[in-house]
Specification:
The protein is elongated. It starts with 8 loop residues before the first strand and ends with a helix. 66% of the residues lie in helices and 10% in strands. By secondary structure, it is of the alpha+beta class. The chain has 13 helices and seven strands. α6 crosses α11. β5 and β6 form a beta hairpin.
C-alpha cells in the first residue's frame, strides 16, 4: 500500500486535516452503481489507497461509520431525480484516518461526477452537530435509512431551513466564500450579484404584502362614509356620492390588487437554483484549472475526464444564467404592474381631496369625516414610501442581472 502522507495542514477556521489543504479539490467519476471509474491525484493521495485498489471499487469504500445512513439515502434520492446533491461527508482513509469534505455529486451521462472541497464555515459546525445527533438516534432507535433521512430533513427544518435544497445552497455559498477568503482571492462578484438580486426580490415581496394590506384597509372607507353621510346629509348628498364612487372603484380594483399580489412572487426557486448552480460551476471551474497539473495515470484518459467535467460546468453556467433571466423578466413585468398600483393610489387621492372639500363646507366638527381624510392621507403617504422602495429594489435587480448577462455575453 502507498504510505500515508505525513504532512498536516490547518486552514484559517481551525479545522485540522492531516492530508489536504483548502486549495485541494477532489474529483471522482462513477458509474450508475457508484463504482469508481476515474479519480484525481488528490482523491488518491488523501484516501491513501493504491490506484489498483481504488479504480473499480465502490465509492463507499471510503464511507466512515460515523456518517448517518440517512444522508446517503437522501443523496441517492436527489441524484435519482436527476439533480445535483451537495452535502458534508466524513470519509475514512485506507490507513484508518478520517477527513471531512463538502461534496457535490452530479448526474452525468451513465454515472456521476463528484467534486469535493475542504469545509470550514459555520455551516460545517452546524451540520456536524446534526449528524452526531442523527447517528445517535440511528443506533439507539434502530432507524432505517428512509426514517433517518426524514429525521435529517426535520433537523434542518428545525435549524431554520425550509428544505434541504435551501440548506445545501447556503452551505455551498458559505464554503465557497470561506475558500475565497482562505485563498486570499477577491470576492466572487457574480455570486454577489445573484445575492443582490435575491435581496431585492425579498424586499419587493415583503413590500408587496404591505401594499395589498393598505388597499384592503381602505375597503372599509365607503361603509364609514355612508354612516357619516346618513348623519350629516341624508342619502343623496355629496358625501354619499363620493362614498358610492369610492366603493365602485375599490370593487373594480380588487382584481388588480390580486394580480399585483400574485405577480410579486418573483421566483425564489429560480434564484436558489441560480445561486446553487453557480456555486457548483465555480468549484468545477477551479478543478478544471488544475487538471493540467494532474499526473498521467495508467488506464485513465485525462483529456476525456476534463472534457466531461467541462461540458457539465458550462451546462450549469447556462442553467444558472437562464434562472437569473427568468427572474429578471418577471421583475420587468412586475414593474409595469406597479404603474397600475400608482393609478390606484391616484384614486385614493381623489377621494381624499373630495372629502376635504366637503369637510370644509360643513361648519360643525365632524370627527368621523376627519378620520377618513386622515386615513386616506396616511394610505397615500405609506404607498408612496413603499412604491419608492420597490422601485429601488427593481432597479437593483435589473442592474445586477444586466451585469451577469453582459459578462456571459463577453465570455461567449
Amino acid at each position: 500500500m502507498t504510505a500515508a502522507p505525513t504532512h498536516a495542514s490547518l486552514d484559517p477556521s481551525g479545522f485540522e486535516s492531516r492530508h489536504f489543504g483548502i486549495d485541494d479539490i477532489f474529483y471522482s467519476r462513477t458509474d450508475g452503481r457508484g463504482i469508481i471509474l476515474a479519480a484525481n491525484a488528490v482523491f488518491q493521495r488523501v484516501s491513501v489507497y493504491d490506484w489498483s485498489d481504488l479504480i473499480g471499487a465502490p465509492h463507499n469504500v471510503i464511507r466512515h461509520p460515523d456518517m448517518p445512513r440517512g444522508v446517503f439515502h437522501l443523496m441517492w434520492s436527489i441524484l435519482g431525480d436527476g439533480k445535483p446533491f451537495c452535502g458534508y461527508i466524513k470519509n475514512k482513509a485506507e490507513d484508518g484516518s478520517h477527513y471531512w469534505v463538502l461534496a457535490v455529486a452530479c448526474p452525468s451521462e451513465d454515472g456521476f461526477l463528484s467534486v469535493r472541497i475542504k469545509p470550514g464555515s459555520e455551516m460545517f459546525r452546524q451540520a456536524q452537530q446534526i449528524y452526531t445527533d442523527l447517528r445517535h438516534r440511528e443506533r439507539n432507535e434502530n432507524l432505517p435509512p428512509e426514517a433517518s433521512s426524514d429525521a435529517l430533513l426535520q433537523a434542518f427544518e428545525s435549524a431554520g431551513y425550509s428544505d434541504y435544497a435551501s440548506f445545501m445552497t447556503k452551505a455551498l455559498t458559505e464554503e465557497t466564500k470561506h475558500r475565497d477568503i482562505a485563498l486570499q482571492r477577491p470576492a466572487d462578484w457574480r455570486l454577489r450579484s445573484i445575492l443582490s438580486i435575491k435581496e431585492g426580490v425579498k424586499e419587493i415581496e415583503d413590500h408587496a404584502g404591505d401594499v395589498v394590506r393598505i388597499f384592503k384597509q381602505t375597503n372599509q372607507i365607503p361603509y364609514n362614509m355612508r354612516l357619516q353621510a346618513g348623519r350629516l346629509e341624508g342619502t343623496d348628498g355629496p358625501i354619499s356620492v363620493i362614498s358610492n364612487n369610492h366603493r365602485q372603484m375599490t370593487q373594480s380594483l380588487a382584481d388588480a390588487v390580486a394580480t399585483f399580489s400574485e405577480k410579486s412572487l418573483l421566483g425564489n426557486d429560480y434564484l436558489m437554483q441560480a445561486e446553487f448552480l453557480h456555486g457548483v460551476s465555480r468549484v468545477q471551474y477551479d478543478l478544471l484549472q488544475s487538471f493540467g497539473l494532474e499526473p498521467v495515470i495508467d488506464g485513465q484518459d485525462k483529456g476525456q475526464e476534463k472534457a466531461l467535467l467541462s461540458r457539465q460546468q458550462m451546462e450549469f453556467v447556462s442553467m444558472a444564467h437562464k434562472a437569473v433571466v427568468e427572474v429578471s423578466d418577471r421583475v420587468s413585468a412586475f414593474s409595469k404592474i406597479c404603474n397600475d398600483v400608482r393609478r390606484l393610489k391616484a384614486g385614493l387621492e381623489m377621494t381624499r381631496v373630495m372629502c376635504k372639500i366637503e369637510r370644509s363646507r360643513i361648519a360643525e366638527r365632524v370627527d368621523g369625516l376627519d378620520e377618513i381624510v386622515q386615513q386616506l392621507g396616511k394610505a397615500q403617504t405609506d404607498l408612496d414610501h413603499l412604491l419608492s422602495k420597490m422601485d429601488g429594489a427593481v432597479q437593483q435587480i435589473l442592474e445586477a442581472a444586466e451585469r451577469l448577462t453582459q459578462s456571459r455575453q463577453r465570455a461567449a
